[in-house]
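Session log. Operator J.P. requested a structure for one protein chain; no other inputs attached. Running the standard single-chain path with token output.
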Amino acid sequence: MQLVVGRVGRAHGIKGEVTVEVRTDEPELRLGPGAVLATEPAQAGPLRIETGRVHSGRLLLRFEGVRDRTGAEALRNVLLIAEVDPEELPEDPEEFYDHQLMDLDVVLADGTEVGRITEISHLPSQDLFIVERPDGSEVMIPFVAEIVTEIDLEEQRAVIDPPPGLIDDRAEIASSRDDSAGEDASGGEGASGDGGTSGGDHASGKDGG
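Structure written below.
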């Protein structure tokens, strides 16, 4: 299985190094010296990593055959793609790769169907499951241990224990009606954002890290 593990950024210096936007939780494995990566667009690769180092919090890579700034700039925005065994698991048993979580059925502890995971959004504070409900609507489920109580890959399901209001908006509707009755309702409208996912080799963890 091929997964995006990075995106080439700007050239750094004049000797062919590039900055890389890391899209994997295992850069030392996926983006280490000697690794050979496919690319998108395909004609830019394959690329073999010659050296790697961290500078000011950014990963800098040099690829074999790229020796100057012009060559480095030509790789800007190229996606780096690694071949990953679909059966491979992260070392931490509480973490999972995105492709293992996609399409899992989301259910309550009593088996009630909630929906199906269609996206995983990686935020700085935590990961979110974007879950499509049977009626076509979407709900965002924080991937934290207090809410996602079990991931069962054999049964292809995620068991959740949601707090009130997370997947059922009836309490919110009732509150709005009460406010209207008191003639002082603010009429606030909830905003829901589109949860983007990198589509990369991320390991999502329940601890929100």
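Operator note: The first strand starts at residue 2 and ends at 12.
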